[in-house]
Amino acid sequence: MKRICHLYIMLFSLTIGLVGCGDNTGFCEEHVLTQDEIAEIARQDSINEAQQNSIDADLILEYTVEDVVSASSWTSKTLEIDLDTIAELFGITTDELAAGIAGEDGAPEIEGFAIEATTHDDNSVASNTSGVWGHWWDTSGDVCDTYNQDTSAFYAEWNDEDNVFAIGQYPGHLSVGDSITVLECLKYNDLRVAVQITYIVTAE
To answer: 30 lies in a domain?
Structure first.
């Protein structure tokens, strides 16, 4: 008797399935995209790519720093940036800009932040280095945890006494030929500046 009941249940399920496919062919057949649908998907992908590749800044300053690969030593290179041009955009003096970055009392309120390379989203943390402005970066060009033995590639740390960046690698984490581009940024009122730094690792 149980075997007959099971047979009826199987036949009933099969019948329901066949009826369902007959009434709703869209569920059983693969949908073939039309040319209009393909064009719309391509348009949306293009918009998303443009948004990811765009840098939200009123001024972009580009710099390249080359450093010799090291398996065991911390390195430090000095990078001077064009403070005069940044100050001109902000409508303040270069001294006021430097004081603002340093967070001195009475100085203009300059905010340091970063832009992630993979998403171009803002990272509002001013610094995760020992300086008032600067970040640790991974090989993708995204901000990572300080001294992270798994992800840290190099750092860019603002020296507010000399008004320059100190840039160096986490030893043993990079190879010859590695090239990483990062975005250290400043904001004053509604104006934004991106300092684009490309860090290139060379042979000894």
So the answer is: no
Q: Does residue 22 fall inside a structural domain?
A: no
Q: Are 109 and 103 in contact (CB under 8 A)?
A: no
Locate tokens 């004081």: which residue? 99
Q: What is the pLDDT of residues 99-145, one digit of tens each?
A: 999 999 999 999 999 999 999 999 999 999 999 999 999 999 999 99
Domain that holds residue 81: 58-202
Q: pTM, whole model, 2 decimals?
A: 0.74
DSSP 60-109: EEEEEEEEE--SS----EEE---HHHHHHHHTS-HHHHHHHHHT-TTS--
Q: Which tokens go with 118?
A: 């993979």
Residue 121 amino acid letter = D
- Which residue from 132, 111, 136 is spatially nearest to 186, judged by alpha carbons? 111
Neighbours of 54 (CB within 10 A): 9
Residues 91-113 as b or e (16 or more Cβ within 10 Å = b): ebebebbbbbbbeeeebbebebb
